[in-house]
């Protein structure tokens, strides 16, 4: 059976949405980028910080160590630092970041995209205000 032709706008392909196949090495990968959104407004109004992020040209996966540096397409994870504290936590889920228990007031969250050996590739900081509890 042949392909059906239509005047409709073609749907975006899986490759358009997800990017290149993880089964094929990429030559000359573009540098990774990190997109970090401000906290979601509704949870923030209740003192809950939900931060959505995504990486481009880097897949977020829980794989670590020197041996993973040569993987193509590139892989990594994020380091998350709250309010310039001297420590951070690591997230390799690629899902929304959650920060709870912050006092009312202004805060910042630094999100760093890192390679499997924890070298920072790029970073973004979001600042926000946790409202007083009512």
Description of the structure:
This protein has one domain (31-130): Sandwich (Immunoglobulin-like). 7% of the residues lie in helices and 36% in strands. It has 134 residues and is mainly β. The chain has helices at residues 14-18, 41-45, and strands at residues 33-36, 49-51, 53-56, 59-60, 75-82, 89-91, 97-99, 105-114, 120-130. The model has no long low-confidence stretch (mean pLDDT 90). Strands 4, 5, 6, 8 and 9 form a five-stranded mixed sheet that branches. Strands 1-3 form a two-stranded antiparallel sheet. The protein contains two helices and nine strands; from the N terminus they run H-E-H-E-E-E-E-E-E-E-E.
Q: What is the averaged pLDDT score?
A: 90
Number of helices: 2
The rough form would be described as flat
- Provide the number of structural domains: 1
Give the uncertain stretches in residue-range form. Answer: none
Which fold name is given in CATH as the topology?
Answer: Immunoglobulin-like
Biggest sheet statistics: 5 strands, mixed
Query: In angstroms, what is the radius of gyration?
Result: 19 Å
Strand content: 35-45%
| N-to-C order of helices and strands | HEHEEEEEEEE
CATH superfamily: Immunoglobulins
Class in CATH?
Answer: Mainly Beta
> Architecture, according to CATH?
Sandwich
Structural class: mainly beta
């Amino acid at each position: 059976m042949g392909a059906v032709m239509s005047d409709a706008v073609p749907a975006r392909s899986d490759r358009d949405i997800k990017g290149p196949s993880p089964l094929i090495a990429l030559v000359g990968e573009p540098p990774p980028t990190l997109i970090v959104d401000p906290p979601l407004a509704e949870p923030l109004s209740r003192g809950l910080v939900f931060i959505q992020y995504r990486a481009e040209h880097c897949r977020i996966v829980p794989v670590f160590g020197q041996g993973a540096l040569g993987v193509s397409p590139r892989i990594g994870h994020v380091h998350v630092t709250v309010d310039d504290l001297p420590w951070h936590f690591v997230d390799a889920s690629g899902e929304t970041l959650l920060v709870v228990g912050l006092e009312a007031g202004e805060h910042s969250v630094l999100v760093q995209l890192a390679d499997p050996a924890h070298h920072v590739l790029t970073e973004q900081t979001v600042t926000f205000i946790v409202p007083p509890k009512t």
